[in-house]
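Lab notebook, page 48
Experiment: co-folding of the full assembly
Goal: obtain a model of how the components sit together before planning crosslinking
Operator: M.T.
Materials (sequences as entered):
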Amino acid sequence: KAGVTQTPRYLIKTRGQQVTLSCSPISGHRSVSWYQQTPGQGLQFLFEYFSETQRNKGNFPGRFSGRQFSNSRSEMNVSTLELGDSALYLCASSLAPSEGDTQYFGPGTRLTVL
Amino acid sequence: QQQVKQSPQSLIVQKGGIPIINCAYENTAFDYFPWYQQFPGKGPALLIAIRPDVSEKKEGRFTISFNKSAKQFSLHIMDSQPGDSATYFCAASKGGANNLFFGTGTRLTVIP
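Observation: model returned without errors.
Model output:
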């Protein structure tokens, strides 16, 4: 079974631009979560989607948004990019948002903002 | 504020040694405590997880010890190998939620 796939793997943008990242969960998984990983802040939860609905949201500004499609694929969007948005963005999928359901992470999208 | 505190930041052991990584949390609503392993260029991969109703869980060479009263949990790697060299993250979440709160990570180096 194929793992979580994320596209693109690498991205370079300039300040003020916007970016869209894509995540395809493991087949049959309906829950998708997004995390930001930076050397300074570590791994931080962005948001979680299940059945096309956002269930939880982390402490990030409104410039960060996401959505989930009927096939469980998810996208996240960052508008008006700032230098501090440079990070590895990780997507994780699980069967459902049940208690302690195992989350499987993708390889991430490395975003660099110049 | 860091919800899960992890130490040490880095750890170097000889092959066959038993590295121990510690984590502490404050939120008593947390009821799921996984450990993830991450290699450079890869996403984190689940190693082992525990719930607060047990004090220890072992899977292969990896053991989690859990102290509910102290709100601490730790990862022990028995007979460590150079291939175990990676960054390890502890995490915690509340029931029914997939939003994990991660520790800051421990970079483990196992010397042959």
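Interpretation: Chain A touches chain B at residues 4, 31, 33, 35, 42-45, 48, 55-56, 58, 90, 92, 94, 97-108 (CB under 8 Å).
Next step: discuss with group before ordering constructs.
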